[in-house]
Amino acid sequence: MGRWICCPCSRVAGSLMLLLVLALSCNPSTAATASPSAPHIKPSYSFGRTFLGLDKCNACIGTSICKKFFKEEIRFDTWLSSHLKLPPSYLLSYSGNYTDDAKSWRLVDITRLTSKYRHDRADKRICTSLLKTRTCSLERALRRTHRFQKWLRAKRLTPDLVQGLSSPMLRCPSQRLLDRIVRRYAEVPDAGSIYMDHLTDRDKLRLLYTLSVNSHPILLQIFPDVEGWPFPRYLGSCGRLVVSASTRPLRDFFGSAPEVAADLALQLLAVLRSMGTNDLNYFFYFTHVDGGTFGVFNNGHLFIRDASTLGIIDKEEGTRQAPGPPS
């Protein structure tokens, strides 16, 4: 019998996007602990562009849910009245509340793709390397890169445009997977086409930035929970913050009653089975697993909480079958 061999993925030398990846590369579960002490916290109801990361757009994730923040329809758990302060900006994630009608609220997770400290350090490193200054327009700097110039000219997202990005999802990208990313990219109003004609230059930069830093929000968008995929629902982004349905990390259930542990173990096996066998013929694999990789909703259902370490092999297009031994 033959065996599946992943397609080769070479790095593009000299790409500044690689510098971004190297500067941000870290284990998300430990990023926040590596940060310095918290900066001065601004008082209530004053998000500021810096806290959200809007001051770095369009080198950011998106702006689809910003209105919810400014209309106070997304609130942090510790920020429900005018005399309270915003939570510390150096944290990696926050618990929040989300509403559509100002009456009923539901829990959400508000997260950064990596810690603000590492974001800031990477931003400074890019400016220093490209423009030889400590401060600069990050967007202008990234727009000058060879990779982004190729993105601007491209009509379709192809494997050569993402080669060298460190996301496990893109180590062996198939054209079918990349088409799915463009067609379901939720930070643009006119998704649905595999061609990038509906993406503005700004949209292309945001998509490239997200794929370069952490593909977690992209996975939530292209494999939505409403279609049965075991991921929390993606609700939107604002600057460098992502909002998704809330789950408790699996580590919180260590030491649970035997019947609870047995139920979660069975659910975990079912999730792992679906990652290898599904109707779309994608094979998902983990490059890293810890107590925060999986999460549990309030109803007891287990999901993949952190998709940043997931790799994908397309069993239809992204692989080739090696010849077997002579018969």
TrEMBL record:
Stretch forming the signal peptide: 1-32
Top-rank taxon, per record: Eukaryota
Where does it localize? Secreted
- Where does this chain mainly localize? secreted
GO CC: one term?
extracellular region
Question: Which Pfam family is an annotated match for this chain, by its short name?
Answer: PIP49_C
Domain FAM69 protein-kinase residue range list: 208-317
Which terms are listed as keywords in the entry?
A: Secreted, Signal
Check the record and name the PANTHER family matching this protein.
DIVERGENT PROTEIN KINASE DOMAIN 2B, GH11358P
Q: Which family does this protein fall into?
A: Belongs to the DIPK family.
What is the protein name given in its UniProt record? FAM69 protein-kinase domain-containing protein
